[in-house]
Amino acid sequence: MATVHPWTEEVGGAVTAHPLGSCRLGDDPATSALTPDHVLRGHPDLFVTDASAVPAALTVNPSLTIAALAERASEAILARLAALGVTPRREIPPPG
Question: Which residue intervals define the domain Glucose-methanol-choline oxidoreductase C-terminal in the entry (predicted)?
């Protein structure tokens, strides 16, 4: 019998050196743990922006995709802060 890897139900399915998708982003609550705004369903103050949010294995290194998703999520995070009455600092301090 062939080995089934823990990150797929298909024998010989997607294999990646970068485990992704354990907390998937998507529209359908039945197949995704996160809303399209990166909010964990049922937990409105918890945002997930790491590799676990990537819905499926990629054929390339996922670092730029993860960075783009995190930047995309920043608008939703800022909107949630505003709804809570928190004014975030918008400047980025220099390193060191």
Answer: 16-70
Render the burial of 52-67: b for 16+ CB within 10 Å, e for the rest: bbbeebbeeebeebbe
Decide if 95 is inside a domain.
no
* Number of domains composing the chain: 1
Q: 5, 18, 38, 43: which is the annotated catalytic residue? A: 18
For 38, the domain range is 18-84
Q: Is the pLDDT of residue 16 over 80?
A: no
In a domain, 69, yes or no: yes
Q: Is 43 a catalytic residue?
A: no
Torsion sign over Cα 30, 34, 37, 40: positive
Looking at residue 26, its pLDDT comes to 92
